[in-house]
Structures are given as C-alpha cells and as structure tokens.
Amino acid sequence: MSDRIVNLSVSRRALMKGGALAAAAAASPCLPNLAFAEQIKKLEQEGWTKHPVACTMCGAFCGLVEMRKEGEPVSEKTVRIFPNPGHPQQGYCGRSAATMWVWNHPLRLKKPLKRVGEKGEGKFKEITWDEALDGIAGQLKTIVEKYGESSIASTSHTFSGFSKWITLPLGSPNNIGHASSCNAGGISGRQWVFGKGFDGAGKMEPDYANLRYLLLIGRSMGAAMGALHTLNIARANGARVVSIDPRMPDISYGDVDWVGIRPSTDAAFVMGLINRMIQDGTADFDFIQRFTNGAYLVRDNGRPLTQADVIEGGDKAKYVVANATGELSFRGLKKNEAGAVVFDEDPAFKAVLEGVAPVKLTDGTTIPVKTAYEVVKETAAPYTPEKVYEITGVEPGILLRIAKEFTNLKGVIDDGWYTSKNGTDVQLYQLICIANAMNGNIDIPGGLVVTAGAGFSVPSVSAGKGPNGEKWQMAKEKRIDKIVYPEASATFKVALQAAVTGKPYPIKGVFFVGTTMFHREANSQELAEQLKKLELCVVQDVLPQELVDYADYVLPATYFMERKEMAGVKWALNGSIYLSDPGLTPPKGCEARHDVWILLEILRRAFPEKAERVGYKECKTAEEFNKYFD
Questions:
Q1: Which of 182, 189, 178, 240 is nearest to 214 (CA)?
Q2: What is the mean pLDDT of residues 500-511?
Q3: Distance CA 436, CA 415 (A)
Q4: What are residue 189's DSSP bridge partners?
Q5: What is the CATH architecture assignment of 113-178+460-557+592-629?
Q6: CATH architecture, domain 189-221+228-284+377-450
Q7: Chain segment 2-30, per-residue pLDDT in tens
Q8: Residue 552 φ then ψ, to 5°
C-alpha cells in the first residue's frame, strides 16, 4: 500500500485549460470527410493499421477510426483519431479530438483511492485494488444487512448499461439515470404525443440528410456530432436552418439564421407558430384528420369520448370521431391475423375537425363535445404575433416569416437532445411534436422520421434476470424515483434527496459510474450536502471531477480506447451495428479496470451468491474478465 496522499481538488484547472485548447482546435473549420478518407488511406499505405472505434464520451457513440503506427510505443504521436468515413454517425467533436490527450493525461486516475480528509476536501490515499474492493464490499454488506438492498443505488449519464451490474444483481431496483436536464424532457414529451416506443432518445429524428428547412429551438448541434455531419449534407444542397436561442450558438457562425429569444419563452414562440399555421390555413389538415387524434371527440373536462360512452357494451379503448352529418365512427388499435398491432378504423369515414354537434350518451344525456384539434386551436389562439413579441421579444414579422417558410418547405423542428440546462421543458417538447404533426411531416423524407433499430442485443442483466436466463427475486420496493415522478424516464435527484430525508425510503450508498452530478444540478450546494450524507459513495471514472471530492473511494476505470464493445448505432435512420475494437491498454502506471469488473468484484466479495446470479465468479485478470464479458 502506498502512503502517498493525493489532493484531487487543487489541480483540475490544468485539466480544464487543456480541455479548452482541445475544444478550440475541434471548433475550427473541419476538413471534409473526403480529405479524412484520403489521409487514412495515405497512413495505411505507410504501414499504419486501422481500428474502428465508437466514442462513448457522450450518448451519441459516434464512429471514429483509430490509426496506429505499428511497431512503435503507443502515444499521442503514434495513434491518430479520425471520423469514420461511411459510418452513419461519423462525429468528430472536441472530445474526439482530445481522445489521446485524455488517454495519457497527467491527471488520469491511476490507482484506487480512499478518502482520508473530510468529504468535499478531495484528499485521498492510494491503496491497492484488494484494499479498495474489500473495503467497499464490507461497507456494502453492512448497509444492505441493516437497510435492505434498495438502500443501494447506482447511476450514470452515459454508462447506465454498466452501472446496473451492481444494483440489479444485488436485488435493488435503483439503477437510475440522471438525464433530467438532458433528454428526459424530450422523452416525456414524445411519449405523451407519439406514445411509447417512439419516445426514447434517437427513436424519432429529423431526416437530416433530406430536410429542406430545420428549426433548432434551443438545440445545440454539438451533440450528436454525427447528426451535424449529416445535416451539413442537406445544407450543401440548399437546406435552410434557423436557430432560435437566447445565445448565438456555434452553428450560427455559418449560414444559419439566428433569432434571439428571451430565455424560457420558447413554448410561447411554438404556440405562436401553431396559431399562424391554423389562421393562415397552411397546416396539413388532411394529415391531422387521417393520422392524428385531432378528430377525436373530447368532453368539457378534457377526457376523450370512447365507444363505451355512446354504445352499450362498447370498447373503452376505441375513440369517437364524427363526420359532417353527425354520424359517429370509432378509431383504436387491434391485432391483425399475424399478431401485429395495427390501427383500426373505417378508411371511408371522413371525420371533421370542427363544428361537431352534441353527442347522446348511453345514459340518455346529451353533452357538448369538441375535437382535440379545436382544443389545440383555442389554446393557441391568444398567441398572436403581437402577443408572442410581448412574451419572447421575437418581432411579429419574424414569426410570420418563419411560419410561412416552415409550412411552404414542409419543415421540421428538431425535438433535440435538450433545450436548456437544468430545465425539464416537457411542455415545450410536446408543443414541438404537435407542431411537427400539424405540418404533416411525420415519417416522410425530410421530416421527423422513425429510426430503424438494428434488432441487435447482447446478453445483459435486467431486474430479476441474468444474461444466461438466471432469475431471482428483486426487493419489494419500487424504484425510488418512479414513486415520486412516475411519468419521468429517470430522476436520480430523488435518490439523493432520500439520502437526507429517508423518504420515500432511505438511500445509504451510491455508485457513480463515469459521470458527474455537478454539471446536471442547478443547486450545487444542496447536492454537496446530499453527497455528504451518504454512508458509501463510490466514484468510477477516468479523470478527476467535482464529484470525486465527496467520494469515499475513487476507482480508476478504463477508457473507451481500452474496451471492445458492440451495440446498435444511435441517431442513425437505418439499423446499424457498430464494433469498437481499439485494442489499446491503459498507459504505463495506470491500473484502470473495466467498470463492470469493478462492480461485479465488489458484489462477489460482499455477496458471492448474488454475483453468481449473473454467472460471475472471480476473474483475477483483465483477460479472464474479458472472456466472461465478451
């Protein structure tokens, strides 16, 4: 064991300074991918070998190529990183540009660390892996025996597929992402407009390559960079892009129109856009009638009218529409002969969007109804260009121009990764989805399209089920954030609040895998106090960041350049699978290990029978673990 004391809180400025330089280099005008392809070919002719790499420094997993000069020691000079020509998500941002700089950075976490100072001081002592794993396992066992499995939580922003390997085999449901200020708002907004299955990140995306007009409302194209590359193809072919943002975003330094707007008023702008589409008669009314619930009849209390309301013994899952003569018809879902879920309707029935007569119910009463379209129309009506200007600061003429261009060019609004940091923006995402639907550009070339998955999955762990079909009983408690926010995809903040309040039930230990919470939470002081309350706080990462100052143990994890991975490609329209096979090992003196090995070793040492739930027994070397995990 080393007696060396490491203070992680004092030297991160060097890291930030270097990061700024790398980002500045990446922000400069990039070479066309043709030029990259020529450089790659030239290096191959000179004896360099080519290795496919998926960058996992954010959720985009952009495709890169690692060019390695064989026969020479691995360094920043003998390994070069390029965007992967032909990859459907060929991104190259500041993170990609900094790949080898991070791999061998002086501040890289090299050995396991144990806290020796107060939480928040950032003072640690280097220890061996056995000391770290045994120490964590001992604390984990004590907490679980006292408070139960659900008192342990794990989280990651990008590596939730890794972080779940400690909680789910343990029996705790609390593997919780923390995308609440990233894409969680978009997921909820899409779910409430388009339904489940179309709500996840990358499930519905603008057809960047073929679009004619794109609205970016608070959306930075800095993520995913592969989408920006594809968008640039459309821009080269004459597509117009308008950015609506309080700040002038990076993409606006080129040929993109920038419209300044007051912060937090985006929803009013989209309401004004919807109102103009209706008032000008440029909305796609045929699409609204045929392919949305715009014609569905709605009661005064906002509830939709069902077949069961108007026909004795009717179906509660079939909804009522009416035609111009007051006849009723019903729309819903059914399974066809092949077992597939399909839409059930009378294709010859022409439903109206406005002016429906009162409807007689099964109890004999007659009630007034509106269509869902009328509800939207009435809600949007107050948002005149003048009112929008008063709220947003966007001049009436600009709104009128954008509304005209958006409908004339069958434009699309990017529903984005996030629209603002530390905000949910759920209502804004709902309005964006509605505006896209009212423009009739859903799942058509150049519109908002449904991406095709690769149909590829690897054996993994889920709640109560292991990679080889193993099954076990999970703890009785519900995932803690779903108790408080059942409609949100993930809200890790609830777990940290429970560390202080003990409600809905106590959280005593957390494993943070490749992530920091301080970039995601607006109240950093509150976050710091919550972290101090944890009895066990474990951070696994490549480089030190603010979160490590509050950890009991800091464990060095492998970098994406040191792991072999396969997965489906995100944000790609057509189903694709990537193989990332960089083949590097951690630099000299760095004892980093795979995140999943770390978690399973802790679990094995605390509860060996629970590690066996996922077929894991001791793996002493990286080679042994890779054989298990592959």
A1: 240
A2: 98
A3: 9
A4: none
A5: 3-Layer(aba) Sandwich (3.40)
A6: 3-Layer(aba) Sandwich (3.40)
A7: 556 656 554 443 333 333 333 333 333 33
A8: -85, -35
